[in-house]
Specification:
- This protein is an alpha/beta fold.
- The chain has helices at about 1-15, 20-45, 60-65, 160-165, 200-210, 235-245, 270-275, 295-300, 315-320; strands at about 80-90, 95-100, 110-120, 135, 145-150, 170-180, 190-195, 220-225, 250-255, 265, 285-290, 325-329.
- It has a six-stranded antiparallel beta sheet with strand order 4-3-6-1-2-5. It has a six-stranded parallel beta sheet with strand order 10-9-8-7-11-12, sandwiched between helices.
- Strand 7 (about 190-195), helix 5 and strand 8 (about 220-225) form a beta-alpha-beta unit.
- The radius of gyration is 26 Å and the shape is globular.
- One of its GO terms (molecular function) is cytochrome-b5 reductase activity, acting on NADH.
- Belongs to the flavoprotein pyridine nucleotide cytochrome reductase family.
- Keywords: FAD, Flavoprotein, Membrane, Mitochondrion, Mitochondrion outer membrane, NAD, Oxidoreductase, Transmembrane, Transmembrane helix.
Length: about 325
């Protein structure tokens, strides 16, 4: 708008009283100014790395979209982010969208997560210290201006009731990104995911990264377990993945108990079922596991109290998998 205002002012000065030989200079100057204005407008209306920008986007935001984005978070300390919007997903889960400053990004790369706590440290554990919980966003790493989380409420939990009690304008303290490992395309020929409940979000991050990269030919199989059909999170997303990437991605849903109208798998994952669907345990494959503690114990064994991978046990060990062929989120 500054260029437009300057150009308008210049034309007004000349149009009120052009003097003889000045008229030619005016036409040349005005034409140059018009070309610069049009060129600048075209530049600012170029698509950002994240896609086309709406015509209503302010110029400052257009300039920001063309620049290398700033990283909003830091793993060295907590940043208070303001809740922008809450969208109910199902009976016990909601999507929470938090503002990031300007056109900044979260900086998360797969496989990465953040750690959250109450902004005022009001949620404490039995030891009196603030309760902290790890979460994996469902928004992509390059999303500008906000970060989204799909969070399931556990009524007997210490932290999720606090998150679900937040209203737009409230804040949550977030630290990260904390990267568990760096995904390298085509490291494996096949990967498998055994996920349960809200443990689906780390899997989504990595699966989406693979499928969104045309150069990554890794084949992906997702086995996703839930209590009921209504508990299945992000089913519409995975169904869309399967539709668009049928030669690369497959998903199989399972519920604990039979339900009316359900034609999929019923019951817990056993060795026979996993052997049928997961990639074989070899150097060209990797299997990722995430879910509630009972599921983790049965499939792979849990992680240590300090978050280390721990010993591989459970069904996967019985099937011949080695510790370097399995990763526990």
């Amino acid at each position: 708008m500054f260029a437009a205002r300057s150009f308008t002012k210049a034309t007004r000065q000349y149009s009120t009283g052009p003097q003889g030989g000045q008229s030619k200079q005016f036409y040349i100057g005005a034409a140059g100014a018009l070309a610069a204005l049009v060129g600048g407008y075209s530049y600012l209306n170029k698509d950002s790395p994240s896609g086309p920008l709406p015509m209503s986007t302010p110029k400052s935001d257009r300039i920001g979209a063309l620049q290398t984005p700033q990283i909003a978070l830091t793993k060295d300390g907590f940043t208070n982010l303001t809740l922008k919007n809450v969208k109910k997903y199902n009976h016990d889960s909601s999507i929470f969208e938090f503002d990031l400053p300007g056109s900044s990004v979260s900086g998360l790369e797969p496989a990465g997560l953040v750690v959250c706590k109450a902004a005022d440290d009001s949620v404490t554990g039995d030891n009196g210290k603030p309760v902290m919980r790890p979460y994996t966003p469902i928004s992509t790493a390059d999303k500008r201006g906000s970060i989204d989380f799909l969070i399931k409420k556990y009524d007997d939990g210490k932290f999720t009731p606090h998150v679900h009690g937040l209203k737009p304008g409230d804040q949550l303290a977030i630290k990260g990104p904390i990267q568990k490992f760096k995904w390298v395309p085509n490291t494996y020929e096949k990967v498998g995911f055994v996920l349960g409940g809200s443990g689906v979000t780390p899997g989504l991050q990595l699966i989406e990264t693979i499928l969104n990269n045309p150069a990554d030919k890794t084949k992906v199989t997702l086995l996703f377990s839930n209590k009921t059909p209504e508990d299945i999170l992000l089913k519409e997303v995975f169904d869309d993945f399967k539709k668009k990437h049928s030669d690369q991605f497959d998903v199989i849903y399972s519920i604990d108990q039979p339900a009316k109208g359900w034609n999929g798998h019923v019951g817990y994952f056993n060795g026979e079922f996993l052997k049928q669907h997961l990639p074989a345990p070899d150097s060209n494959s990797k299997t990722y596991v995430c879910g509630p503690p009972p599921m983790m114990k049965a499939i792979s064994g849990g992680k240590t109290s300090k978050g280390a991978q721990g010993e591989l046990t459970g069904v996967l060990k019985d099937m011949g998998y080695k510790e370097d062929q399995v990763f526990k989120f």
